[in-house]
Amino acid sequence: MKDRQYMILSMNPGYDQWHVVYNPPVIDGVFRADKVFRFVSGKGLNVARVLKNLGFNGYTCVNIIGGGTGEIISRNCEKEEIRCIEFRIREESRINTCVMTEYSQTSVSYVEPGPKLSREEVKKYKDFLATALRKERECDIVISGAPCRGITEKDFRDILSIVTSEGNDVIVDISGRWLQIAAEYPLRLLKVNREEFKEAFYIDAFIFDHDLKRFKKQKRITELIVTDGKNGCMVFRDDDRCIYGKMRGVTGGNYPVGSGDSFLAGYLMRYAQNAGISECVRYANACGLANTYEYGPGIFDRYAVEAQLSHINIYEKGGSVL
Questions:
Q1: How far apart are alpha carbons 245 and 263 in whole angstroms?
Q2: 251-299 pLDDT, tens per residue?
Q3: Mean pLDDT over residues 16-36, rounded?
Q4: Which residues, 6 or more positions from 281, have their beta carbon under 8 angstroms from its beta carbon?
């Protein structure tokens, strides 16, 4: 059977700089970096990077980029051999900065809001997306991360209508009001973390799992995954059975940024390869764990993931190990 193909909508990508500081500043407020890491970022691009690093080529990342920063993003995607197509806009793509103080094991992130699309650019983006989908009929759509400014709630509904009307399976990892809107549409998979889900729908998935099951049915979601960092994840399957993924014997590394995106990418890869649900969840958790040991989102390979697989247990509700 042919592997599934993914089109990943990266609607607000950026360029990240991570400044790693080993020692306290000599002058208050002046931090001198000992190492600097630079990479393209954004949830959609993080997912694409992980798929590429795992050796999975059945994806295309659709980036909205603009200005000189957009050129940097484009060049670095090409350098990393991340498969992308681009929608160009007038305003500048965002640059994000993270200062990691190793001496105190803390970090501070400065995240730009990103560009704002004009009404004409939004219209052209919808047409661009519809054309791309007609060329790639047999693919699943992955919406990972919130859209650029200028894309309104109505526009986002239009985008969801475009991708669902073509008969494609739709996979969503998003938060806030965008999550609430996405849940109005039939989704093949919704992946969300515990706090984002509680904020959007007032349900603590790990306490009130019966409410989660009812929510899944009402919203016509085929498969629902709620992650909870080091506590693992819970998955309501397409047959409404519930399984859990838990880490055993490890607590992970110090760099969780991008672990949720790595989790999703690992799941998507194994799902595309027709693996069973337990194997998809095990591999996804191993990817999220592997991500915590490296600076930067998705900067690991399949060997790092394989080294973590033995630390992941999959349970059915009630305690039986799968």
A1: 11
A2: 888 888 999 999 999 999 999 999 999 999 999 999 999 999 999 999 9
A3: 93
A4: 225, 233, 235, 243, 245, 267, 314
In 3D, which of 97, 104, 87 has the Cα closest to residue 15?
97
Q: Residue 318: pLDDT band by 50, 70, 90 thresholds? A: low
Q: Report pLDDT digits (tens) over 108-159.
A: 999 999 999 999 999 999 999 999 988 876 899 999 999 999 999 999 999 9
**217-232 tens-digit pLDDT:** 999 999 999 999 989 9
Between CA 218 and CA 206 the distance in angstroms is 19
In angstroms, rounded to a whole number, what is the distance separating the alpha carbons of residues 231 and 251? 9
Cβ atoms within 10 Å, residue 144 = 26
Backbone angles phi, psi at 66, to 5 degrees: -155, 155
The percent of residues above 70 in pLDDT, for the chain, comes to: 97
CB atoms closer than 10 angstroms to residue 240: 11
- How far is residue 81's CA from residue 58's CA, in Å, rounded to a whole number? 13
SS3 at position 117: coil
Residue ranges of E strands in the chain? 6-10, 14-21, 35-41, 59-66, 84-89, 94-101, 106-110, 140-144, 170-173, 187-193, 221-227, 233-236, 242-247, 312-316
What pLDDT is attached to residue 216?
92
Per the CB < 8 A criterion, the answer to whether 260 and 288 are in contact is: yes
Sequence-separated contacts (24+) of 234-243 with Cβ below 8 Å: 234/205, 234/206, 234/209, 235/277, 235/281, 236/212, 237/277, 240/213, 240/216, 241/316, 241/317, 242/209, 242/213, 242/316, 242/317, 243/277, 243/278, 243/281, 243/314, 243/315, 243/316, 243/317, 243/322
CA distance 196 to 179: 9
DSSP 55: T
